[in-house]
Each structure stands twice: as C-alpha cells, then as structure tokens.
Amino acid sequence: MKLAIYPGSFDPVTMGHIDVLKRGLKIFDKIIVAVGEHYAKNYLFSKDERVAMIGEAVKGMPVEVRHFSGMLIDLASKEKANAILRGLRAVSDFDSEFQMAITNRKFSPEIETVFIMTRGMYSYLSSSVVKEVASLGGKLEGMVPPNVEKLLRKKFS
Ligand code: ADP
User: What is the pLDDT of residues 107-136, one digit of tens each?
Assistant: First the structure.
C-alpha cells in the first residue's frame, strides 16, 4: 500500500488543497492529512476546527486527518509513509518548498517529497485569499468546500 502524508496549515482547507488530495489519490492508496502549526503564523481557526473541516470535506475518500506537531519525518517514518505530498502554485512557492524538501531529505533520505502542480483554475487560490474575501463579505463559491464556506461566514458575521 502506498501511503503519503500531506502536511500543512489548512487555515482553512480550500478547493486547491482538495484538488491536490484527489490527484494525489491517483498515485497513493491512502493519504494522511497532517494539520500542523507554524511557530510564526497566526491562525483564524483552531487546530480542532481545521481538522474537523477537512474531515467533513474528504468524507468517503481514503484520507485520514489528524493533528500533528513535531518533526514531519518522525510522523512519516512512524507511519511508514512512502512520501510527503505538497502542492505547488507559483514560482513563489518553490523556494520554501525546495528548502523544506531538502531539509526533510537531510533528516530522512528514504522519504521522497512529491509535488503536485496546481490546476490552472486554483493557481490563485490560497487560504489567505479565502480569508480576505470572506472578511469583505465576498462570494466564496468554488473556492472552499460548502461546510468551510458556512464556517467562514459565521466567523466574519
Ligand atoms: P503551509 O502553511 O504548510 O504552507 P498551507 O495550508 O498553506 O500550509 O498549504 C499546504 C500545501 O498545499 C502547500 O504545499 C501548498 O503549496 C499547497 N497548496 C495550497 N493551496 C494550493 C492550491 N491552490 N493549489 C495547489 N497547492 C496548494
């Protein structure tokens, strides 16, 4: 069984994330979404909220969603994952993704990082854009799963 770990903030999960997951499932039998926390980031949604939102959006898919803290490669080797999955949108993503992949390889050479290139229609889409639009009362259709749209409306009402 081929297993990947898809780590990220997912604050909140967007259709871009879901698209990466769906396409990742053409390569992997199962994906663990590891919802983490960067020390330098402020989050709109708590970790519990982020986990619950993704869980609802991926119902029926061979995807497990869980909290994650600590070193990603420790989780990857504990789960015997074959790969770390990440998405790429623009050249601007490349630098930090490259750094992260090289660092993970240094710690754990046997785990590959696999990148899935965004679909054109999602190349502009990020959790930050979604929060910005939601805070201004704009339409979120097609940007986030329906359950996430509801929660965003509630947060900003
Ligand atoms: P992080 O804070 O770890 O970057 P994010 O939730 O912002 O967490 O992103 C998780 C991963 O999903 C990253 O690899 C990011 O590049 C990717 N991603 C986010 N949005 C998109 C999108 N619209 N298309 C493709 N990949 C995306």
Answer: 999 999 999 999 999 999 999 999 999 999
